[in-house]
Design goal:
By secondary structure, the chain is α/β, with parallel strands linked by helices. The protein is elongated and about 75 Å long. Helix content is 46%, strand content 17%.
Amino acid sequence: MSQISAELITRRLAGRLKMRHLALLLEIERQGSLTRVAQRMATSQPAVTNALLELEDMFGTPLFERGSRGMKATAQGEVVLSRARAMLQDLDQMAMDMEALARGRDAHLHIGAIPFTSGRLLSAAIRQTLPGEQRLMVTVHHGTTGELLDRLRDHGLDIVIGRPTADTDLEGLNHEVLFHQSPRLIASRGLASRLASRRLDWAMLVALDWILGPRGTSLRAQVADIFMQAGLAPPSPMVESYSSKIIGEMIASSERAVSIVPADLAEELVRVAGVAIVPYSFDWKLAPVLMLSRIQTDPRPVDTLFMAALRNACAGVRAAPPAPASYLY
């Protein structure tokens, strides 16, 4: 197909593109086969083929190419798929906003947060977003920073609170540092007491039963880096989990389990799970916690209000000092 101008593509799409076309493209991406798409959509393969050809005519370029492993999006197709996901998510968001209004709420806000985000900060920001008689419907989604940023780009989330790594792609996103956290080593009360009686020894620590976050997360990468700097292979975790509840229960019930978590989460687990903080002072800090949103010319008022409220809630957060021995009791 010959190249056509953006203006011509816009005119064609405005008159011919329908939401069912976008859903079809995403189904082709998922299934990788027009036959399977036809089966899923209860139609014939020729009908699916004709619909795809119609779409490619609108855009003036092939959107998929056939290969030995099925259909794969072309470079142009990837662009269209990305926009299609965002447009369908926007349609869902519009429906949710209307549902919120029907239920007496002013808007529906979707927040993505890494699991180690302070619940106190989030709840304070939500309370401050719509004061007085106004009411807000909020859905909080948890996941790794990478997962949440994918959903943010696809318009499935409005704002993300995450901890990107140095190689995280932040193109097309606004980002600002909310606060820094210090790491804490946590263990059961008995193990913490024994560890506190001796100097920090990474070779001894690596032999314990570690509970760490999933691979690819910022904190997991930093823990691995610390051991490698000490000339040791990083610990192979006994349990991989981003759940503070599981971490607290596993730590409190074992005389060999340890984990490194942000200081505010460690202090919370001392209160609710009965773990203890080993009074080691680390000379490193965790990557900062960032607030991220899409770059857009006309953000919703509720998004702007929430971001301002979150900044205000985080204004007093400072890196905690080294944990004193009293944390053991």
